[in-house]
Fold each of these.
Amino acid sequence: MKTTPHMQSSLGQFLKSRRERLQPSMAGISPLPGRRRTPGLRREEVAYLANISVTYYTWLEQGRETTPSQEVLTSIGKALQLSTDEFQHLFQLANGDISRANTSQSEKDIDRFVLQKLVEQFQYPSFISNEETGVITAWNRSAELVIADFGSIPEEERNLIQLIFLNPDYRRRLENWESLARYSTAFMRANFDRYKDNPVFMERFKQLLRDSEDFARFWDLFEIQQKRVTRAAYFLPDGQRMDFEIHSATGIDNDPNLHWCIFMPVATTNTEEQLIRLLEKDKE
């Protein structure tokens, strides 16, 4: 869709305002020589920091360039040290796809205590993961009893797709292993371009290709799947079977990479009653 003059003006004004608030010393560069007619960075300095041409950046501020790429916008946002909310505003003004902007919070910024308190409010098995790194950051007791003992798993291995393909015990307990494995592979492929610049994501991907023939086989199918409700059936150590529908929510605390998975008992089974008894026995 063609950008309107109003949007062009708003984008240019926003870039100019963010540029003027940032001093060269704050950006980690020496100021260019000559008299500074405006506060903050010069256009030449922003262009240098963003690794783009001065002419191109000038056109953006002037509204003469209306189709900046996501990569250019991300580079400019980083050069201007935009906050997460400012990044999203930048992409909205440019009519970009903010879901693909590299604006997620770092692991150190995520309040794991709050996330943990959130999942503990649920009786059903539940966990929150960071899709960019794959790490499950918070989970409740039901998830430990039914899905996996996440607390005993090293953090770098604490993600569902690695459990599915690289943990033999998890595979044995999951009755519909193949369907869930194919779904997980298809979801990973659908989001591959979004996260391929993240070294943690890529290392996990390479490990799966290297260590799991099944993952490599499913990957070669080139199936694409976004998040949707899917089924999972588990056998517990005592032999009882529990059937769940996996529901998910995204964008927790405005972070598009945080996904909340909730395993809801299938209504036509006795899984909910079994889960209640399991939790009561665990408290004894």
Note: The radius of gyration is 24 Å.
Amino acid sequence: MFLDNRIEVYFQPIISIKEKKIFAFEALTRAFDENDNFISPLKLFNEAKKQNEISFLDNLVRQKAITKFKKYYEKDNNILLFLNFESSVIEEHMKNNLNFDFVKQVEELNIKQSNIVLEIKEDTIKDSILLEKFCQIHRELGFTIAIDDFGTGYSSFDRLAIVKPDIVKVDRSLIDNIDSNYINASILKSIVDICNKIGALTLAEGVERKEEILSCMKKHIDIYQGFYFEKAIEEIKEDDKEQIKQKINYIGSEYKKAVQSHIKIKKNLFKRMKHLTKDIVNIISVEEEFHFEKINSFIEVNPHIEAIYLIDFETGNQINDTVIKSISSGLYHASKHNDDHSLKEYFYITKEAKSKEFLSPKYISKASGSMCRTYAKVININSDSFIICFDIFAE
């Protein structure tokens, strides 16, 4: 039997940077034995499964969480409570058409249903029909739906269509060191993009370092949960709120500095590339003839430039073989004379841009496999218009 007085619920704050406040709490179980020794939640719930009391424990923890949440809700009726659900309990209730006790409890405490977030680990629920049924029933009742630990285990994008979540919590495994992990950063960007398209908020779980938060902010994530701001604690006091607010202000200040630095770097890059463009025009257009062979020495003295090529302004066809720093091999091949670039962004956007120049986002070069950006600018040589392209190693 799981004793009521040995099980407690702690709240971990979930933060909105833009709103500069605690956005929500997640209810987390804390249990202690007769000698007040801590029992891990994993051990606790595994023991409940062995004793066939998982439904009882799951319900008990939820009731405690909702009761505790009531006083916070009375002070701020915009704040949310995240409640976890054991997958086996969801499947059991849906199979047997059973109602959850928390629905009645929320109503009795006069808490708005949309302030309760039902947090589902969708990858642990094998039956998609039961999962969809659970979400549909409780969404119609007014509850908010969240997917937990997305991006790990068997999480898949097709389940987003089944759950139709209001919030997607990205797993810590993707957030860890995301500031230096390009692959995870790209996966996270894809998750954020699809969440935006389906109208779901993205929440970064397990943030522990400033750099992780700043990297996530660049991908337009506003909501965070993790030890950087606060661990799960028994009571959220005014001092805790003040410390969290200070951390939010610090992160906001650091992000502004990073944005300002990025703008400055970009301006300097445009300025430098305009000068280099003039140099290239002077090098290759002598006596009404192109001298592309002279570009090789130019690339050698400009180590940040990987490749240079010229495109016809009207057709988008390449004028010369790409002059590239490294020799292409295997999967990667530099573009050649007469290759068609008319569907490339750096061609058609440069043509239409008021400034007649364009800097692409970072991408993997098909010429070398290196991470690069393309700077393109309209130039005039011998009364004809061209677009010169520089592939620049991305920092």
Note: The mean pLDDT is 89.
